[in-house]
Amino acid sequence: MIASGSAVLSEFPLDAGPSASNFPRRNRIISGLSLGVLVVEASVASGSLITARLAAEQGREVYAIPGSIHHPGARGCHQLIRDGAVLVETIEHILEALRGWQRLPLSTETPTAEAVHPLLMLLHAAPHTSEALADASGWALPTVLAALTELEMEGRAGCENGRWFARVS
């Protein structure tokens, strides 16, 4: 696996068997490594809704495909859309949101103590959702998400319950 560029990432020992109680912990890792989560069909008691909630808490985009109001498997998607998930009817809806990730410049500069990141200035005032940061900063949401990911990896920002905050160093 290593020779082919693959890896195994888990909180569990490699010999741990599958257990339904471990799925939320596994899916937290999967959603954290993803740019977003698309829910195609889910009942209101679905594990997919747990994964979508985790993704939102991690600042990831949540997408949902609506279905018939008569189909129980569509109710979870409808709940997600009511809660703010992006309604998706075509792949273009997702690709448009992700296009900004392809155009992000790679920064080789190390932030200095004097330079305060514009998003951190907003976060020092109050916690914000990623969407609120995009509105307040005037940046495209994919750009905000990329910057938040970098700030989180640097330990300068964190996310709890879908709201980002500045970490005090």
Entry keywords:
Arc Repressor Mutant, subunit A; 169 residues; 5 strands; Rossmann fold; single chain; 2 domains; alpha/beta; two-stranded antiparallel sheet; 7 helices; three-stranded parallel beta sheet
Overall pLDDT level: 84
Give the CATH level 1 class of the largest domain: Alpha Beta
CATH topology (fold) name of the largest domain: Rossmann fold
Identify the overall geometry: globular
**Side-by-side strand order of the widest sheet:** 1-2-3
Regions with pLDDT < 50 over 5+ consecutive residues? 102-111
SS content category: alpha/beta
Distance between the termini: 38 Å
Total number of β-strand segments?
Answer: 5
Kindly give the count of domains: 2
Provide the succession of SSEs: HEHEHEHHHHEE
What is the C-alpha radius of gyration, as a whole number of Å?
Answer: 18 Å
**Share of residues in strands:** 5-15%
The biggest beta sheet reads: 3 strands, parallel
Task: Give me the number of helical elements.
Answer: 7
Helix content: 40-55%
The CATH architecture of the largest domain comes to 3-Layer(aba) Sandwich
